[in-house]
Amino acid sequence: DDIINGQGTIALEILEKLSNPSYFLASIGGGSMIASNSLVFHELSAKTKVLGFQTYGADAMFKSLEADDLVKIPHITSQVESFATKYVSQKTFSLTKKYVSEIIRMQDQECVDASIFMLERANILIELSASVCVAALLKKKFIFNPSDKIVITLCGGNYDLGVLSKQIILNKNVNKNPCQ
Q1: pTM for the complete prediction?
Q2: Alpha carbon distance 61, 96 (integer Å)
Q3: Burial classification of residue 64, based on how many CB atoms lie within 10 Å of its CB (0-12 exposed, 13-18 middle, 19 or more buried)
Q4: With the C-alpha atoms ordered 55, 91, 158, 17, is the resulting torsion angle positive or negative?
Q5: Above 90 in pLDDT, residue 86?
Q6: Pick from 33, 143, 153, 166: CA 20 to 30 A from residue 39's CA?
Q7: Which of 149, 157, 150, 147 is closest to 134 using CA atoms?
Q8: Distance, CA of 153 to CA of 99 (rounded, Å)
């Protein structure tokens, strides 16, 4: 409960600076961030659509909502370390089910590409769980207008720089453009 309550302060801080964002994009591991923030947006900015993002192979919330019951994933196959949650709690499941507009699954490579894109274009190192939201924008995984106010939380505390170096080299060798 304390973790859920604490993470809900993200939406409160956002709403102090920006009234009525069109979208709040959240990555989902155990679901505490999206659950708490979707409740806050529902109560204080009802027009804000909350969208959640997970990767295939680490999608316990998506599968639980699809089954309309808690689902435990036997093995995490996603390389997104922060998503390595085999199950979500009843509380995060219930709040997400009630207040989140949609959950979209992404490929691991889309997250890698978006993370490298942010490093190269904005000089910001973000971890793969945060890059899933950037990837969703780059790949146009949901419909939005240029005038929409879209909020993403970016973090970078959970990244292995050795792995990142290898990913950058691999991407350079195949000359990928994450914007396409």
Answers
A1: 0.88
A2: 8
A3: buried
A4: positive
A5: yes
A6: 143
A7: 150
A8: 18
